[in-house]
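Good morning,

Attaching, inline, the C-alpha cells for the sequence recovery test we're adding to the shared suite. The designed sequence is right after.
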C-alpha cells in the first residue's frame, strides 16, 4: 500500500468467516458503515447488529430472477441469453436467470432448443478457454444444488437435462454439477421460488405478458428481470410493471454498468443502491452550509483568509 502512495490503514483486507470476523467488524464502534453482499438470512442478522448504533447499512442479498420469452421473441437471441443468464458463472450470481417464463405458443420449440444447448455445454476447469461452465464454489454448494434437484423431482417438475453431480474423470478433483433444466414448472414450486445459487433453471409456461409479469413478481426477491420481445409497447409495459431494481430488454438478467445504480426490491435489499452516484450518497454524509455575506467586516475577513 505504501508503494501505491496510500498510508497504512486506507485499505485493509480481513479474511475469515461471518460469525467470527464479519460479526466483529459489523459490531465495532469504529465501523460507521456496513455494506453487505450475501444471503437474505445473513443480511437480516447484519441489519439487527447495525440497528442499535444507527449505522448506515446497505444490504445486497438474494435474487430469483426471470427471463420472459414472449411469442414474438427472437428465439436465437433469447436462447443465447437464457443460457448465459442461467449457467454463466455456474449460476452463482445474484442476478442469475434461474427462471424462464416462456409463452406456450413457442414453448415446445424453445425448450427443445434450450435443452439441447444446455446438454452440450462443456463443464470443467474455468482456466481452460474451451470450458463453458466452471465449478461451484465449494462442497457445501454442490450439496445444496443436489438437494434442490431432489426437491424439483419430488415436486413433479420434469427433469429435462442434467441433474447429477460430476465427480469422475476430469471432474474428480473439483465441485462440478451438470447444467440442469426443469420443465413444466409451476410458479409456486420451491425450485421456482427459492434461490439455489447454482446451475439449475426452471421453465414455466405462460399464456401472456400479464401472466408472465405476475409470475415474475410473485417471489420474495426483486433484483433483476428480463423480457425478450419485438414489441416495444410490451417491452415498456414490462419495464414499468416488473417489481425489480434492474430490467433488461432482449438481454439476459446478469451484468451491470458501473455508472448505473445496482440493487433490488423486497428481500433483495433494504432500499440502498451500489455503484454510480447512489454509492456516494450511501458512503458519505450530506452537510448543508450557510454563510451570511451581508456584514462587510465578515466578508473582508473571509476574503483575507
Amino acid at each position: 500500500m505504501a508503494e501505491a502512495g496510500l498510508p497504512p490503514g486506507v485499505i485493509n483486507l480481513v479474511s475469515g468467516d461471518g460469525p467470527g470476523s464479519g460479526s466483529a467488524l459489523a459490531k465495532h464502534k469504529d465501523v460507521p458503515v456496513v455494506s453487505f453482499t450475501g444471503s437474505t438470512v445473513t443480511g437480516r442478522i447484519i441489519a439487527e447488529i447495525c440497528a442499535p448504533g444507527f449505522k448506515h447499512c446497505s444490504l445486497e442479498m438474494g435474487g430469483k430472477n426471470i427471463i420472459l420469452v414472449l411469442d414474438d421473441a427472437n428465439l436465437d437471441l433469447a436462447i443465447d441469453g437464457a443460457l448465459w443468464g442461467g449457467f454463466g458463472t455456474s449460476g452463482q450470481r445474484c442476478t442469475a436467470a434461474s427462471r424462464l417464463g416462456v409463452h406456450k405458443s413457442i414453448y415446445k420449440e424453445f425448450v427443445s432448443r434450450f435443452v439441447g444447448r444446455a446438454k452440450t455445454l462443456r463443464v470443467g476447469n474455468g482456466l481452460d478457454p474451451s470450458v463453458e461452465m466452471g465449478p461451484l464454489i465449494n462442497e457445501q454448494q454442490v450439496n445444496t444444488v443436489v438437494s434442490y434437484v431432489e426437491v424439483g423431482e419430488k415436486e413433479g417438475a420434469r427433469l429435462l437435462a442434467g441433474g447429477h453431480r460430476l465427480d469422475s474423470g476430469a471432474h474428480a478433483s473439483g465441485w462440478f454439477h451438470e447444467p440442469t433444466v426443469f420443465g413444466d414448472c409451476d410458479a409456486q414450486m420451491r425450485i421456482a421460488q427459492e434461490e439455489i445459487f447454482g446451475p439449475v433453471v426452471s421453465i414455466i409456461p405462460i399464456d401472456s405478458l400479464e401472466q408472465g409479469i405476475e409470475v415474475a413478481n410473485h417471489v420474495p426477491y426483486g433484483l433483476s428481470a428480463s423480457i425478450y420481445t419485438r414489441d416495444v409497447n410490451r417491452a415498456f409495459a414490462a419495464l414499468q410493471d416488473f417489481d425489480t431494481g434492474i430490467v433488461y430488454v432482449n438481454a439476459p438478467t446478469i451484468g451491470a454498468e458501473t455508472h448505473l445504480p445496482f440493487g433490488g426490491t423486497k428481500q433483495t435489499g433494504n432500499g440502498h443502491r451500489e455503484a454510480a452516484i447512489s454509492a456516494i450518497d450511501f458512503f458519505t454524509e450530506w452537510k448543508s452550509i450557510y454563510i451570511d455575506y451581508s456584514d462587510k467586516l465578515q466578508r473582508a475577513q473571509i476574503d483575507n483568509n
